[in-house]
Amino acid sequence: SPNIFSASSRPVFYAEGKQFWSDSEDVSQIIAEIKEKGVEYVVDNDRARRKYQYLEGFGEALQNDPDFELIYQKTPQPGYKISIYKVKQK
Fold it and tell me: What is the rounded CA–CA span in Å between residue 40 and residue 11?
């Protein structure tokens, strides 16, 4: 079962994975925890940022970090963009 960082349990359920969530509200700290805890996938979406406003800038931070690879992105309608990143294994 993959470890997945996601604000919603829905993608974790369909991937038959385990959900990882951080208590931190600092994007840099969250990214550091994702790397330290063996998370394999990160789901970033517009709806999560509406609920957890501190995640603003999270997607950009993932895009600019060489340890993350964008593997899926879709915007079915404005305000519903979803991006999935794979954490590169070292």
Answer: 13
Dump pLDDT digits (tens) for 10-23: 999 999 999 999 99
- This prediction has a pTM of 0.93
- Tell me the C-alpha to C-alpha distance, in Å, between residue 28 and each of 12, 13, 33, 59, 60: 23, 26, 9, 12, 11
d(CA 82, CA 68): 15
- Cα 82 to chain centroid distance, Å, stands at 10
Distance CA 31, CA 42 (A): 10
> What does the DSSP assignment read for 13-71?
HHTT-EEE--S---HHHHHHHHHHTT--EEEEEHHHHHH-GGGTTHHHHHHT-TTEEEE
CA dihedral 76, 6, 29, 58 (to 10 degrees): 0
